């Protein structure tokens, strides 16, 4: 049966109850009014009593207070369906309208009914209208409430000046109370204890109760939770104050994780909600959700959020939208969008942002960038930092709000959000000035913004400011740079972990390299899946830098970094397969990893891939080789330039274009890398006029940079006085160094000089040993000289057979004297 039908019966019963309905109201207790049925029966009696006014006016007013001053009016309707609720609200307003001319404070109650009404039944215009009616009758409560609502823009349009004027229009108890709330909200607490003491002397029960609630707020603000708990418990026991019940439940919930405490808190929140504290539904819903490995109850959360949303809680509506949009067990896009719109209707900035992003992204709703941008602008107009920063990004990138980038407008938005201390916007504004995105850099402003970002604990700002100290933009100070990188690293900013680790490893800031201290930084970054740090950990394990060498760990972290797209790690994995580090040789895998790195544009991967194709690691393809080497050379790889130079110098494809080699060797030299090629070009006049002095200069330069073939050629220059004064001691030194690195010609000359005591103390045994090593690798000169040694018994036991063996080997390898000696002809 509908409430409308039953209420008609209640009305008839009230008329038939006798001539003194006001007396009947007086007899009703609070407990009797806690059910929907009994409360509406009492409302019918109040309605009948109102029709008899001014008879028993005091008793009628007291009856009104019983029904409306303790939240029982809310409790009577909270679970009604929509049709019954509409009837309830209409009836309540009608009864109060008839009461108000007799008791002007009731106009305030009508305003409160519209303020607490469900959904679109909440009516800001009517709230203002009835408060104004009460104010016209000098109702102090209405003056204070309207002033407070206007000052903060709660439901009513925000107007701080008018709101404050109303609150300061008198020193009524209510104005004092609400001014006290203003002070408390601003953190101006010095005069509040005296205000509370003053308010508590008032004998009006309603004033006294509100004074105690205000004291509870003050104790909460001061962090005196135990005292607040005692106060709220007293209000619960004496008045069943809905806000006191709510806060008591919240304190109990926060102070214990025991199931019994949670159960007690939930019961208190439920009671508080039923008496009109909508925020309690938010808590019931939120704490019903799964959290911290607790299963939770999504259905229960939805139940409470729906109740909260019914009474215009933007928090409940927003959380409900998120559940319907994203929770697998509750997915319902249509419902999600409905509640998102409900939250927006109730001014939820979070919902505005969520809807804007959905519209811009177009993943869950039809894409509508224009509408999404309009929502962002709506939030930006309310000075929401996120929206201002997001709009800045859209203007910067030319997405949504314009057809092309509008950097000037982007910066305006970034700076406005930065003024509101939004760290990302601070970073963006600083970035604009640092890198001159509007045309001219302004390092002073960049510094100011980055320093503000540091104050806001932004690791990006810390890192960028560190770079300004590193590159001398402010002043070159590596210690200050490191301190900033380290501070950002402590905030677990992956980029800073990498940078601070690099500083520690190399001692840039204190000239005291400390690889052991650096390694934990790299490891922390790697644990955060930062590819650069994963690479560094692999490198540290590979080379034993700051940690014991561990091939398995090196490969593990190299693979993680490679999978994350780090080309350096790809290259290192390729080299591991090439040089059999921790894995078996696998030419194809080496090539595959280099291919991946090369495809990402990493110059060293391009160089190695070209090298592999040039020398046939898997297949020989000089066309592919040159393509990749040219790419690497364009990217600044000096070694790629040397490799291309060698291609032309040694004429791999028999194209007779050796002169082209010089230009590549020259470019590599200009980049600080020289090998024997430039010396050979000058020695033999390939691509440049022959010049032995220049040849020697470049041979020696390359030799000093550990190029083994250059060491051999440097020795040859000293031996023969080519471009330098003949010096057999220096010749032997360079030959011997190259010989140690398996240069065959250098091994031959080292052996020959030792055998003859030329440039070194004669040591025939060691000389023979070097000749044998070179001869075993088919060096014809070494084989011929060994033959002579065995023929003459020079350093070895004379043996004509062994001599002939080596002469034959030398002849096989084209040695002219050996061929004559063995009677062979060229071309045989």
Structure report:
- The protein has 828 residues and is mostly helical.
- It is built from 47 helices and no strands.
- The N and C termini lie far apart (120 Å).
- The model has no long low-confidence stretch (mean pLDDT 95).
The helix content is: over 70%
Proportion in β-strands: under 5%
Distance linking N and C termini: 120 Å
- Structural category is mainly alpha
Number of helices: 47
Q: What is the approximate shape? A: rod-shaped
Largest sheet: none
Radius of gyration over all CA atoms, rounded: 44 Å
Mean pLDDT value: 95
Unreliable stretches, pLDDT < 50, 5 or more residues? none
> How many E-type strands?
0
Keywords:
828 residues
Write the layout of secondary structure elements.
Blueprint: H1 3-16, H2 21-27, H3 36-51, H4 57-68, H5 72-77, H6 82-99, H7 105-115, H8 124-136, H9 140-152, H10 160-167, H11 173-186, H12 192-199, H13 205-222, H14 225-239, H15 242-255, H16 259-274, H17 279-286, H18 298-310, H19 314-326, H20 333-345, H21 349-361, H22 369-381, H23 385-397, H24 407-419, H25 423-434, H26 443-455, H27 459-470, H28 478-490, H29 494-506, H30 515-527, H31 531-543, H32 551-563, H33 567-579, H34 587-599, H35 603-615, H36 622-634, H37 638-649, H38 661-670, H39 676-684, H40 692-704, H41 708-720, H42 728-740, H43 744-756, H44 764-776, H45 780-792, H46 800-812, H47 816-821
